[in-house]
Amino acid sequence: MNGVARTAVGAAWLRARESERPDRLFEDPYASAFVAAADARSPQAGRGSGAGDLFGAHLVFRTRFFDDHLSGSGCDQVVLLAAGFDARAYRLDWPPGVRLFELDLPELLAFKEGVLRGLAATARCERVPVPADLREDWPGRLRAAGFDPARPTAWLIEGLLIYLGPAEAGRLLDGVGALSAAGSRLAFEYDPAAAAVLAERVRTMPELRRIATLWKGGPGEDVVARLAARGWRARTVEASALAGRYGRPAPRGGFLTAVLSDADHHNSPE
What is the spatial distance between Cα 60 and Cα 239, in angstroms, rounded to a whole number? Predict the structure, then answer.
């Protein structure tokens, strides 16, 4: 695994660290196995105390926030775009009938499948891995895997958009909209100002500078208006608003969630 795919190992390492805490906000019993398997093939850099201090609190907040968002979505069709080593299909209590699609690069999903088989892990919902490059025809691959665009879907784009430029991110979000029925839900990280500050800090840290070279800025500040023009009712949540609920000091950053109110509106011209 190279490039962006390798960042999935760092995210798993941070989830493993949180899972060891007595006051953990979530538990991921699979994260440490992904890290160990990756390190057995090629020792990874960028997981020292600096990385933990810089990214740890944000990843913990986003994991718990997105866990709660998906669990409360009411949708029985879930799509994780750039699923990485996410183990929600295995660690969350899903209601009967949920079908969860995981999209990511073929080599990453193949590695993930090998680790899960070695653990004899059993998913708590119907899990469908979909090998796909999100810069190519991922909607076609998703449909071919059994995705039903007529059913409301809970979409999660976690830890990905920062690695896309505005045009790429816009195309990805348009693809989500084109496959979404009314009542579908969408969630991703969103705080352009905090992302810019984080990027500057990362560039000053030699062990993390490589990560910053992969960042392209994400969808831009007009993403809320772009979603609204396509029928999505969006709201943003600052991480600071979650500090009391989570009992932790809040990192900088925030999240966006949206509900599609009109399934026909997303094809309307801006």
Answer: 11
Amino acid at 38: A
pLDDT digits (tens, 9 = 90+) for 186-213: 999 997 666 666 666 666 666 666 776 7
Report which residue type is found at 220. Answer: G
Q: How many CB atoms lie within 10 A of CB 261?
A: 13
Q: What is the pLDDT of residues 233-247, one digit of tens each?
A: 999 999 999 999 999
Q: How many whole angstroms separate alpha carbon 88 and alpha carbon 266?
A: 29
Q: Report the alpha-carbon distance of residue 171 to residue 169 in Å, rounded.
A: 5
Q: How many residues does the chain have?
A: 270
The one-letter amino acid code at 143 reads R
What are the residues whose beta carbons fall under 8 Å from the beta carbon of 252, sequence distance 6 or more?
58, 191, 194, 197, 198, 239
Identify which of 166, 186, 167 has the alpha carbon closest to the alpha carbon of residue 176. Answer: 186
Read off the pLDDT of residues 114-127 as tens digits, 9 standing for 90 and up.
999 999 999 999 99
